[in-house]
Here is the input.
Amino acid sequence: MTLIWLSLAWVFASAGVAVLPVRKQYVPGVALLVAAPVLLVMIGMQHGWLFALAGLAAFVSMFRNPLRYFAARLRGQYPEVPE
Here is the structure.
């Protein structure tokens, strides 16, 4: 039951971060990016890989722009960051 509450808190926190101005999204956004894989592994262990896969799809959908940025940085590119 705790995992469900943690997951719901993560969803509401990410929705709250989304309404912040872009320059104020970085610190809480990184915290959510770090917490997501932990939650997804816990979901996979307790409820099965299909639920973890659904959570991964939701995570990638919500954080597609930061994930694109980090992928570009890993390729050696320097994408433009909004101010």
